[in-house]
Amino acid sequence: MAQTFEEIAPRELKPALLDLDGISRETIEAHYKLYVGYVNKRNEILGKLADVDLSTANQVYSDLRSLKVDLTFAIGGIKNHEIYFEHLGGPGGDPAGVFGDLVKRDFGSTAAWKADLKATGIGGRGWAWTAYDWDEGRLFNYIGDAQNTFPVWNATPLVALDVYEHAYFIDFATDRGGYIDKFFDNLDYDVVNDWVQRYSIRA
Ligand SMILES: [Fe+2]
Q: Does residue 98 contact residue 199 with C-beta atoms inside 8 Å?
């Protein structure tokens, strides 16, 4: 056996997610199913990896490569969506608390942070994240094309903006910018500040 593992279950969707401002229940329910799919895929891949016999021929290594790449996609899909769903359902507005202090310190203003994250989200194919980079000691808005590209080591994502079409196309068609504005309007900064406190991030 290559590696032992435990199956995980999807997190439940918060009821508030079904009543967002401008992002429909239809979108959220379809989106949640995609997240559940990532959880199932993660369990399936880890099951296959546990059965790989490392002592056999070279073919095993190409199988292993494929499984390990797919694993980064599945686990990225879980982590990204757990942040996304967890920090929506709030009143939006300006971030307060330590996160608000970090935003002002590292971007100059809330408006500048939002403008940069929005532009990053328009430039990305799948994600834009506001992450606290422990080596840089500050927030950055990092860009992502897929679930597994391009997370940065030793940075903790605090805001995860999903810009895949599945996140907005039903409600906004091609207006990704309009969707991003509504994303900000639904953010729950208390949740973000809870993470800031949990990770002991200080302004
Ligand atoms: Fe998504």
A: no
